[in-house]
Amino acid sequence: MKNYYQVLDLLKTKLEADPLVQTITNVDEESFDLDKKNIYPIVDILCESAVIGLQTITFTFTITALDIRDINQNPRTDKFVGNDNKQDNLNTTLAILNRLYKSITKFGDDVTIVNEPTPEPRIYQHENLLDGWQMTLELETPNTEISVC
Description:
Elements: H1 3-16, E1 23-25, E2 42-52, E3 56-68, H2 86-105, E4 112-113, E5 120-125, E6 130-142
Parallel strand pairs: 1-2
Antiparallel strand pairs: 2-3, 3-6, 4-6, 5-6
Helix pairs in contact: 1-2
């Protein structure tokens, strides 16, 4: 049975192909921002659960895409945009998640998306003042385990 590896490898491969993604991690949410050598934007893949059915296995992944906040020390008068790149970070990281979702829908019959994800913004997350989006993605694969008789 290689279903978990198959789905994890699919996610990693699709994210590696994205020109905006610089670092991909597979650790718990509290730990992925601790490596000082990270290059941003960073995407973390975390498997939350798996449902084993007779015909399929459904994995629930939390995918988090974040970029580092750059604060300009020069004051701005534009209160909507502010003096940082928060809007740019949100745009970039949502594009990463959107491309991941769209690329998986074109993958074929081996892995299918069960739901349409609803990304949620993450503002000033973790140690390095990161902004971005997080989505839950349910992926279904055929249960190809040898049947037990």
